[in-house]
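@channel sequence for tomorrow's demo:
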Amino acid sequence: MKSTLPKTESAKIIMRFMEERSQIVNKSFVGKLLSILTTMNFDGSRTMHEHVIEMTNITTRLKSL
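structure tokens (generated this afternoon):
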């Protein structure tokens, strides 16, 4: 990340750049989480309770973004 920062003396410009980058990363992360959530299948390798908890955790992470 440090190598992609623009060379500037203004902290406002750097903060704006960092904010834009974090939004791009968040969108990418949301896509990944949605993909995981929509393709999850219960395969019987663990309990149904653990499966539902994992799905709930992914949903909570999505809501926080």
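heads up for whoever presents: The CA atoms of residues 4 and 17 lie 10 Å apart.
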